[in-house]
Every structure is written in structure tokens, then in C-alpha cells.
Amino acid sequence: MSQAAPDPMTSLRKMCEIDLPTIIRNEQAAYTHPWSQQIFQDCLKVGYCCQTLALNEQPIGHAVLAHGANQADLLNLCVAPDWQGNGFGRYLLRHMLHLARSFQIDTVFLEVRISNQPAINLYESAGFCETGQRRGYYPDGPNGREDALILAKPMG
Q1: Which end of the chain has less Cβ packing within 10 Å, N or C?
Q2: Which one from 27, 48, 91, 123 is the annotated catalytic residue?
Q3: For each successive 10 residues of the chain (156 residues), what is the average pLDDT?
Q4: 56: which residues sit within 8 A by CB, 6+ positions away?
Q5: Domains of the chain, start order
């Protein structure tokens, strides 16, 4: 991988069951509608590419990539709020794109909340482009729904 870690004590590794309690805490702190432990367990069970970003061995970020048939979906990318804005999200995203290349993926897709401008900026700076929208894709409050942007990055 070409980019240096934002901190020399940073490591990337396959996600393990033992990481899940901290990952769930990070999800809950970062998102209004976090993934459940069961979703992460299911992703691990089916063999998705699940990665943990750790600082001093403590998980501060994670990502999940599903791949097959020459395409991949970045299903989750999260950095704990206390660590956001320090380059960890960009580092984790580049790592996931590096893994996608190693799987000979042609295109990586993802959905992002239309209101999540920091994430949209990150993805666009990494070469993702909008390919569409999903109306009412995300839960948003007690009765509302929020649209998602569909972004894609050709890996050629």
C-alpha cells in the first residue's frame, strides 16, 4: 500500500469476533442507525472482507467489503468519532481499495447518506463518482427516510 499510516502505532488486520464489542461501540458513537453485532457476525460468517483499523491494538475503525463477479460493494466504513478528521478514514478506504484490486475487481460501489458531506468528499477525492440515488434508503428519525447516493469507482 502506498500511503503511510496516519500514526506509526496504526495497524490493519482481519476483523475478529474479539473486536466486535469495540466495533459496536464505535458504530453506535458514529451512526444514528448503527449495524448490530449480528450483522457483523453474519458478514464474518459468509466471508466478506472485514477489516479492523487499530491504534495501539485498540479498534478505532473498520470496513466491510463484499465482492464477486468482478465488482465489490463497500458496505461499511467507520472511524470512531474521536479519531475522525485525522486521515484514518482515508487510510482505511485506500486499504479497502487495495484489497479490491487484489481481488481483480473492476468497480467498487457504495451507498452514502445524501446528508453525509464529509463522507461524500472523502469518496469523491478517492475517485468515486455518483451513478444514481436510492430514494428513502436509510432510516432517518422515527418516521422518516433519507436518500442515498450510489457512488462507483472504476478500478482500471
Answers
A1: C
A2: 123
A3: 74 96 97 95 98 96 96 98 95 97 97 96 98 94 90 95
A4: 9
A5: 10-154 (3.40.630.30)
